[in-house]
Amino acid sequence: MAEMLDGATTAAVIKAELRERVVALKAAGITPGLGTLLVGENPASVSYVTGKHRDCSEVGIASIPHHLPEGATRAQIEQSVAELNADSGVTGFITQLPLPDSVDDNAVLESIEPEKDADGLHPTNLGRLVLSVARELSSPVPCTPAGIVELLLRAGVEIAGRQVTVIGRGVTVGRPLGLLLTCKGLDATVTLTHSRTRDLPDQVRRADIVIAALGQPHFVQPDWVKRGAAVLDVGVTRVGTTKSGKAKLAGDVDPAVGDVAGWLSPNPGGVGPMTRAMLLSNIVSMAERRLSNLAR
Prior knowledge:
This protein has 296 residues and is α/β, with parallel strands linked by helices. It is built from nine helices and eleven strands.
């Protein structure tokens, strides 16, 4: 049976470390602050943003929420972004997606000041990741890729020189993850695949580490996985509701993969808590860089 990569427990350890760093920042006169922009009442988005602010309270980060109604215009959304950009109490902020259909998500994301881009998804920050060869970056890193790497490292899973197959080419996980894993200090060899990749099972069988971020329930089958490989399930799909009315979720990896893999990060419960922890880590790191710049 696979050893579980427990994202919730690892995230709790990271939060404890962040609390100490926040105490040091406050002693130096800086209180890190996370801003959020939420439009509408989408239950999943409301729950996600609420969870982020709850995380902030756990580590001592200030919360600055902006909540607009469902029918908010593009001008209103742009005004909120401008206010968050200008607010000195906001170290960094995120715009919760999806936005209304009438609004261009990318245009809004690009209007965020790169230095306040807590998700690390602004084109400038993604470009810095492309240009960087070293793992240590002076700009925020996309949270889910950073969480995946941190979860592997803290579990003692060897990355250097290993073959990694990433399934999914999205901008939040697949594309930046490949860049991060090939940085010096991590030194993996990465194959980025997707639903149109030919002979995908064979690509997966060659991998020492598999990250599935496709969004198709139980897509990765046990006979695809090399015995002893590390498998991380990032994709999540709603497949129905429970008797209590809660959403029933399924990951991209068939649960039987646990009989073959050496390590398994399930979904839900694996990478999700790490993503939220790395958002906090980005905020704290951004505040520390601000303090360092003031000291020069």
